[in-house]
Amino acid sequence: MGPSVLRRLHTTPLRLSEPRIIENDFATLREKYNAPKWPVVLCHGLCGFNEIDTHLPVLPTYEYWGGIKESLEGAGATVITTAVPPVSSIKERAETLAASLTEILHDSPWKKDTEKRSQQGKEEPKVNLIAHSMGGLDSRYLIHNLAKDLPFKVASLTTIATPHHGTSFADWCFDELGEKNVDRIYQILETLGVQNPEGFKQLTTSYLKEFNERTKNDPDVAYYSYGAQYFPHWYNVFYPSWKIIDHYEGPSDGLVSVKSAQWGTYLGTINNCDHLDLINWTNRIRYHWYKLSGQRPSFNALAFYLHICNGLAKRGF
Q1: What is the CATH number of the domain that holds 208?
Q2: Whole domain around residue 210: which residue ranges?
Q3: What 3-state DSSP class applies to 227?
Q4: Residue 125: strand, helix, or coil
Q5: What is the pTM of this model?
Q6: How would you list the strands of the sheet with 40-43, edge to edge?
Q7: Which of 10, 20, 77, 300 satisfies CB 3.0 to 4.6 Å to 35 for a cystine?
């Protein structure tokens, strides 16, 4: 670990708190969940997508959100998923998100009756943003810089394992690689068709410190956040990044520390859950093992997102 990483970490303020550890709250599905009044927008993270075609007969398409959209719709929620440039800058990703939402909502009931609602003194059409990982940074940029020109308002933002204060793993990567090697990697990525891979660099603690100073919360928007933690075996894919983050920041989900995930009202830390469990990727494999072994899983991503939407509904969103 180079000295520049240490300097960045020691000068980056992380919000300290005593968060609630969530053990089994989302282990099973409840019979009834309420749906939010406003549409829910699912915002994906770095290297994310809406869905991809695998061209495999067994699994023709693979969704980033792993059945979460369908589960929320089954509970009565209106759900929108969008795709933004996978590794582009926060600014470019946020602008794409804003443009997509404007287009999608243009012919929706919330758009059609805007004038009528305004005349009746009712609320303007709104959306609830639920964002995983870097999607939370895109959403915060959208709210602070773009919202005033959009045909809708943002009622709430719930971030899930978003690196609001950056990650020491990104610091380590750039410190170890060096500027010249980073530029070479960027050139290779662009040759392979990956456009504007600035997103990686914008996850460092130094960049997020500046980002937070100029991207303030909107007092008219409700901000909520969750983090996660787990303790992987040495052979786990997240073990190298987890080890670095654990040393410098403490508990993490393998990519984002609990401290960095805290923004707005922090609703708790999900225990024994990694960065991909949070979007229902690895859970599907794990559930088969649990079924065979007779064990009960401690986390069900569908129950988690249904709980988030149920909470939004109770708060009038």
Answers
A1: 3.40.50.1820
A2: 3-109+122-314
A3: strand
A4: coil
A5: 0.85
A6: 21-22, 265-271, 222-229, 153-160, 126-132, 40-43, 79-81
A7: 77
